Amino acid sequence: MDRSMLYRRFRTLLIANRGEIACRVIRTARAMGLRTVAVYSEADRDAMHVALADEAVLLGPARARDSYLSVERLIEAARKTGAEAVHPGYGFLSENAEFARACLEAGLVFVGPTAAMMTAMGSKSGSKELMEKAGVPLVPGYHGEAQDDATLSKAADKIGFPILVKASAGGGGRGMRIVRSADELGPAIVSAKREAKAAFGDDRMLIEKYVDNPRHIEVQIIGDSHGNLLSLFERECTLQRRHQKVIEEAPSPTLNPAQRETVCAAARKAAGAVNYVGAGTIEFVSDGKDVFFIEMNTRLQVEHPVTELITGIDLVEWQLRVAFGEALPLKQDELRLNGHAVEARVYAENPTKNFMPSVGRISTWRLPAETGGLRIDAGYREGDTVSPYYDAMLAKMIAWAPTRDVAIERLNRGLQESDVRGIVTNIPFLSALMTHPKVRTNAIDTGFIERELAVLTQAPPAPGELELCAAVAAVINDERQAAQDEASSPWQTFGWMPVGRRQRSFAFRVGHGPEQKITLNYGSGPSTLVIGDRELAFAVVPKDGGFDLTLDGVKSQVAAVIDGHELYLRTRNGRFDLHWVDPFGGESEEHVGEDKIAAPLPGTVVAVLAEEGAKLDKGAPILTLEVMKMEQTLRAPYAGVLKSIKCKVGDIVQEGVELAVVEPSGE
């Protein structure tokens, strides 16, 4: 094939993706002088990546298969806008050989490997066969084409439990299940196939021996069309939950220099087996002694920023230059490893409710400035809406420092100074993870988060004296701001009184807990707050995002968000949600029973697991929803009889809709 069909200079780039990665690619492309084209679904009309691009094309409805996974619509979008090249980002069609081939046939440069390379290495089964021939060490497993139940069951028995069932075309933990006994195998395969089909359009499975207490090591590689192939050191991605990476760092704190060179050489050998061109990642699993190849991702990874920060290389820029047909600007011996970088993935999810995705409008988005080694790659802004149709990742926070300990401290400081409201995020969970002593000492494996979940999701401390005083300050500050927006009047100014002193009482509570009372004395002379038998001198100085609160001469910085009677406060003691009991505003509460079997979020019913009339134990599975590309199983809240099922497979249900009714047993 004519090399100019694959690699040539272009001026207009279409990004076939959304969210954080689309924004990331757009920024580098524009810095290189390229014109950028975004694509979007109906759910993403006002998304950040749409606003950043020079042009944007509507693909279709919200569901990914009708928009971001439609090859025909993406090619048509490129034709409409005069785009000459396509960057696939990660996820969606980024590892789809048919998409790469369709781009080539449409005369578009595909920023990534060729369809042939993708087929050879992007298939986890195919790549393992190739690596076996190349002499790269593998985890024992089945990587064959036959996918019938009998073949997969026989393979599992031969390998020996526990095993890992995983999607051949997948990534990001989707379509992956740990199976510890033969009884679990059938349901695990059915569920994994269904999830893989929905996420990747391919339900082929492979089976591997599950390595207990494993560590996840991966090597960033990049090749050009001139035969140059580099490894850009390794990353450690051991901190995972359900096979989804949570924290990544580079270099790996587990490997010594000799081990680093060994694993990087193995990665170059793996990619060299197909004369790889483009950016990719060779992933390994380690049992503490040996390192085994598990798969290659033929695309840019979510965690690529940690590699960029320790090498000083913009990987997206290098991807684009390789697509131009240029040679890589450095040789292997010219690469230098500098310092340490750690990344945390910020998700719209609730860790205290089994990491249930959170959807809605982002009412507050305050992240720290990108200074002092801190970098933030975001795909959302204040006012944006998180929909239930796509991956729930909002942003990535990355910190660089000369040493690992300082990088962790910088990342944790950035997390602690972040305030996102309107949706629930995993930010407090990430901060708890980064401050865990075993994370600091690198005494971890891929099962660490699950084992330590109770510690990592502990309820926040009860509000103390500082928080109650800060709550009063937040209310007063909000009223002061409202008064400034109205006609000027001395009666609307806090603390102004014609004569004497006045009092004002406040009451706050956490959830449905007891009220905690506090009294404000103000008027002529200094203001004070009274809590119980303590009286504290009180002063407030407003600032962006909150205020400085001084109590008895001690000044504290407080971040605050007030929405009606609901207060969010961040003090030196942590984050707090308080309800202001307004004596004049009235109180109305809606109580929803926890026994209701309802859709926790908008989603699609993908499986009904019990029949009407069936006797159920507490926790028995009733049905499965697909929410944000992940499956959620709804279970019986108590032992009883399944009286009715109010949905069927394929139904799209909205949040809060009752899906089934269980009649409790009389026991």
From TrEMBL:
<dbReference type="InterPro" id="IPR011764">
    <property type="entry name" value="Biotin_carboxylation_dom"/>
</dbReference>
<feature type="domain" description="Lipoyl-binding">
    <location>
        <begin position="592"/>
        <end position="663"/>
    </location>
</feature>
<dbReference type="InterPro" id="IPR011053">
    <property type="entry name" value="Single_hybrid_motif"/>
</dbReference>
<dbReference type="InterPro" id="IPR011054">
    <property type="entry name" value="Rudment_hybrid_motif"/>
</dbReference>
<feature type="domain" description="ATP-grasp">
    <location>
        <begin position="128"/>
        <end position="324"/>
    </location>
</feature>
<dbReference type="InterPro" id="IPR005481">
    <property type="entry name" value="BC-like_N"/>
</dbReference>
<dbReference type="Pfam" id="PF00364">
    <property type="entry name" value="Biotin_lipoyl"/>
</dbReference>
<dbReference type="InterPro" id="IPR016185">
    <property type="entry name" value="PreATP-grasp_dom_sf"/>
</dbReference>
<feature type="domain" description="Biotin carboxylation">
    <location>
        <begin position="9"/>
        <end position="454"/>
    </location>
</feature>
<dbReference type="InterPro" id="IPR050856">
    <property type="entry name" value="Biotin_carboxylase_complex"/>
</dbReference>
<keyword id="KW-0547">Nucleotide-binding</keyword>
<dbReference type="Pfam" id="PF02785">
    <property type="entry name" value="Biotin_carb_C"/>
</dbReference>
<dbReference type="Pfam" id="PF00289">
    <property type="entry name" value="Biotin_carb_N"/>
</dbReference>
<keyword id="KW-0067">ATP-binding</keyword>
<dbReference type="Pfam" id="PF02786">
    <property type="entry name" value="CPSase_L_D2"/>
</dbReference>
<dbReference type="InterPro" id="IPR005482">
    <property type="entry name" value="Biotin_COase_C"/>
</dbReference>
<dbReference type="InterPro" id="IPR048429">
    <property type="entry name" value="MCC_alpha_BT"/>
</dbReference>
<keyword id="KW-0436">Ligase</keyword>
<dbReference type="InterPro" id="IPR011761">
    <property type="entry name" value="ATP-grasp"/>
</dbReference>
<protein>
    <submittedName>
        <fullName>Acetyl/propionyl/methylcrotonyl-CoA carboxylase subunit alpha</fullName>
    </submittedName>
</protein>
<keyword id="KW-0092">Biotin</keyword>
<dbReference type="InterPro" id="IPR005479">
    <property type="entry name" value="CPAse_ATP-bd"/>
</dbReference>
<dbReference type="InterPro" id="IPR000089">
    <property type="entry name" value="Biotin_lipoyl"/>
</dbReference>
<dbReference type="Pfam" id="PF21139">
    <property type="entry name" value="BT_MCC_alpha"/>
</dbReference>
